[in-house]
Write a structure and sequence with these properties.
- This protein is mainly alpha-helical and 340 residues long.
- The chain is built from 13 helices and no strands.
């Protein structure tokens, strides 16, 4: 019972992270299951089965908050399902001994990517244009395959790619990726069911992760508007790197003084990434504050009465288009030019 409660708490935290960042539910959950000794294929299968419920709840919540672009969802979900099914079939055919370092390497790489990605300023500006299917299709295919073989990876692959495009609001990127993941998780679960059978799913673990995720899904859809993704992404990336480094070091049979040195270097890298993330977050907030101040000053200047112009009916009556002496709508909003 204690173990199931811990797993439920992990599911809750993982869903809060996933709903706020658009990634890391599978990475966080699969990493924990690997640490406690679950076979890689069973870990990925159980996480994806739980994700069917959590992604459905997350998708509904994001839809209600207006965070979903359905055009992007339809064009990324179907290729993602194909990739996830292929990845699940491949992972099911690999032995546990061979799959463990493979899966840990994928998770370690994705964790490192999170560290690097969130240590730099996040691009949030939007430009015109629409995302094309020839970009979304291959992206979904690759993200789905990595997700199934690594026990997670749909978000870390898809979300940054859509953010970098600059053609969607960050909240809609996260909401659309989370919603599309419902189809991807279903396809991966079918692939694991065919490859492993029902015994490949750890049902108590699935239920515990599902309960925690369902509780957190609505809250995560709301938190995506206010949570500092910069710090959260760097923190999660460090946890994933350190925990999967343990599996890789054991697989490489690195003993003696080299093991603590490696852990120390990884911890130092994590701390450095956190410092850079904090600095990037501060610079972003300062830039926003400066832009807001400049906009407010421009608005005040535009709406203030011009110096030396008396606010009388005589002066107002000479304004063209003001038959009753009042300013036209366009000038009353923008303000009249000052007399020089």
């Amino acid at each position: 019972m204690r173990k199931l409660l811990v797993l439920a708490l992990v599911g809750l935290v993982a869903q809060l992270i996933d709903g706020s960042l658009g990634m890391a539910y599978g990475l966080t959950s699969s990493t924990l299951l690997l640490v406690v000794g679950v076979a890689p294929a069973s870990a990925s299968a159980s996480v994806h089965l739980a994700e069917i419920g959590t992604t459905l709840a997350a998708g509904v919540a994001h839809w209600r908050f207006g965070n979903v672009d359905w055009r992007v969802v339809t064009r990324i979900a179907l290729p993602g399902a194909v990739g996830a099914f292929a990845g699940a079939t491949l992972l099911s055919s690999i032995s546990t001994e061979s799959a463990a370092p493979w899966m840990a390497a994928i998770l370690f790489t994705l964790g490192t990517y999170l560290l690097v990605r969130f240590a730099r300023p996040l691009r949030t500006g939007r430009v015109g244009g629409r995302l094309r299917g020839r970009f979304l299709g291959p992206l979904g295919l690759v993200a789905g395959f990595v997700d199934a073989t690594g026990g997670g990876g749909w978000g870390p692959v898809a979300t940054p790619a859509l953010l970098v495009s600059g053609r969607m609001e960050p909240r809609k990127v996260i909401g659309s990726v989370d919603t599309a993941e419902f189809v991807v998780a279903g396809a991966a679960s079918i692939g694991f069911l065919i490859g492993l059978g029902t015994e490949g799913f750890l049902l108590p673990t699935v239920v515990a992760l599902l309960i925690g995720g369902l509780i957190a899904a609505p809250l995560a859809a709301w938190l995506v508007r206010i949570v500092p993704a910069q710090l959260l992404g760097a923190a999660v990336g460090g946890v994933i790197v350190l925990t999967n480094a343990r599996t890789l070091i054991r697989s490489a049979e690195l003993d003696g003084p080299l093991r603590p040195i490696l852990y120390a270097l990884l911890a130092a890298g994590w701390l450095t990434a956190l410092v850079f993330a904090v600095r990037a977050l501060r610079r972003t907030r300062q830039a926003r504050a400066t832009a807001a101040t400049a906009t407010a000053a421009a608005t005040v200047t535009a709406t203030a009465p011009a110096a030396g112009v008396p606010a009388s009916s005589e002066s107002a009556s000479v304004i063209p288009g003001a038959a009753d002496g009042s300013a036209p709508a366009d000038l009353s909003v923008a303000g009249t030019p000052g007399v020089r």
